[in-house]
Amino acid sequence: TTARVFAAQKPKPKAKAAKAVQTNPEDALPLDEAIRVLRALEIASPHSAFNMEVATKHNKPNAPPLRGRISLPHDPRRVADTIVVFAEADSPAANAAREAGAHIVGGQDLFPKILGGEIVPTKCLATAGMMPLVSASLARFLGPKGLMPNMKRGTVGEGVELGRLVEEAGGSIEWKANKLGTVKAPVGRMTFAAADITQNVRLFMDHIRDQSVKLSNSESALARVNKAGKLTRVRIETTQGPSIEIKDMI
């Protein structure tokens, strides 16, 4: 007789539990109460972050994605930036960048160090004169990481202007809405006082509204808001905790 052998099936790995998301608008909480609830749930995770999730709706056809950069009064990032500036040696731009707080300033000598991992930038800026060299040598490396200097993103400048851009980049958070119009960004850490988180949240929400208005070129402020879009839902969550809808933010 022929023995029939059955391979033992390995148990399927358990799927990760989906993060609890509150969907009933009637259960929405005021911001200060939501912060208290999330803090209580994350008491065993002192390094958790508070994050905002803002849903936007834009009526303008083919509108560019909602995006921006903001420096919050209480920096919610766990790791500080490493700002690298590509500038001609001893140029006014290089000096301005150093005075503004850039961590590393240099020219082509920085390229192999970045490609080899000796320097790991989190933000890159450059002078217009350095851009051809930066593009030729680093575009394929920095581009996929979202670090390539770009005039439209405010990371290319000259002289004193470059120094100002470095100051803006230091401590700032860049954000961009996804294809569904949802914006996500950190606004605090568990170690922050509730008042500091509240201040960050309100400033961030004001900033999103301002950026939404700028998507339209209408002269009327009201028309700009109507054309650019509106905020449809605001939630706050922590790293391991649930997502709570805020009722006093729209």
UniProtKB/TrEMBL annotation:
| Keyword line | Ribonucleoprotein, Ribosomal protein
Q: Which PROSITE patterns match?
A: RIBOSOMAL_L1
> What domain of life does the UniProt record list for this protein's source?
Eukaryota
Task: Kindly indicate whether the keyword Acyltransferase belongs to this entry.
Answer: no
* Signal peptide bounds: none
Q: Which GO terms describe its cellular component?
A: mitochondrial large ribosomal subunit
Please give a single GO biological process term from the UniProt record.
Answer: translation
Any GO MF annotation of the entry: RNA binding
Q: Does the keyword Nuclease apply?
A: no
By sequence similarity, the record places it as follows:
Belongs to the universal ribosomal protein uL1 family.
Q: What is this protein called?
A: Ribosomal protein
Q: Which organism is it from?
A: Cutaneotrichosporon oleaginosum
